[in-house]
Structures are given as structure tokens and as C-alpha cells.
Amino acid sequence: MRTFFIIILATTGAVVATAGPVLPKSGGVQAVSPPPGGGMLRTMPHGYYDCSLPGDAGGRAFKSQSDQGFRISTASRYSSVAGDGTYILRGRNLTFTAGPKNGERFERVGDNQLRKLNRDGSKGELLCTRLADRRK
Predict the structure, then answer these.
(1) What pLDDT digit, counting tens, does each position of 49-63 carry?
(2) What CATH class does 41-132 carry?
(3) pLDDT tens figures, 74-115
(4) What is the C-alpha to C-alpha distance for residues 113 and 94, in angstroms, rounded to an integer?
(5) Are 81 and 99 in contact (CB under 8 A)?
(6) What ranges do the domains of the chain cover?
(7) What distances in angstroms separate CA 93 from CA 22, 58, 70, 81, one per listed residue?
(8) Distance CA 85, CA 76 (A)
(9) pTM summary value
(10) How far apart are CA 104 and CA 92, in angstroms?
């Protein structure tokens, strides 16, 4: 009977030894991987975003583009003169996902500023700045 238990223990040990490590090589603590798709999901501060193009040294500092402005509200929603829609902000990349601005992409360059990205992903000239909180 004793020999039977020794054989069972030896077989179990051999199976466990060939199965490989139970814990990862990092000492049992797994590293947290970054979220897929460009970063953490976030929302922009609420309020009206006025968009403008750079001016020149001989005239106005910027040229307001009133048709490009929009208002960010709750639940990742926006409204513009052309209609309402939704957006998603992943890390520093904002994409309008529905509505009249669907497909437009911006890079968050400050707490209250967005720079429009060209179709190829390069930085465009249009800069949108939050002017006021939505509650005012």
C-alpha cells in the first residue's frame, strides 16, 4: 500500500513539473497593458468650442470659422449649426462618430483646445478653443 502512494506522488510530481510554471515569470504580478485603440476613454470639458485658422502678422491674429464651431455637452454629445452628434475621446485623439461632423478627427493639445487632423493624420491648421462652460 505504501509503494502505491509513493508511485502516485511521484507521478503527480512529474505531471506538475512538465506542466510548466503556474505563475508568470514576473513574480506573480501581471503587468497592466494599455487600453486598446489609442488610450483611455475620456470626455472633453463641456462648453462652446470656437474654431479658427491662424491669421498673419499684418492683420488679425486669427480668422474665426463660425461654421466649424460646436458645443460639447453631456454623454459624449456635441451640437453644431449643422446638427447634433456624438464623439469619442481616446487618450488625446477625438473622433466625431455620428452627426454632421462624423469622421472628423482632432488631437487634444490642451485642457480646452483641439487641433484638427488632416485625412492623412497630419496636424491641420484649424484650432478649436473652449470659450465658455455650457452652464453659463
Answers:
(1) 999 999 888 888 899
(2) mainly beta
(3) 999 999 999 999 999 999 999 999 999 999 999 999 999 999
(4) 11
(5) no
(6) 41-132
(7) 39, 33, 17, 23
(8) 9
(9) 0.69
(10) 14
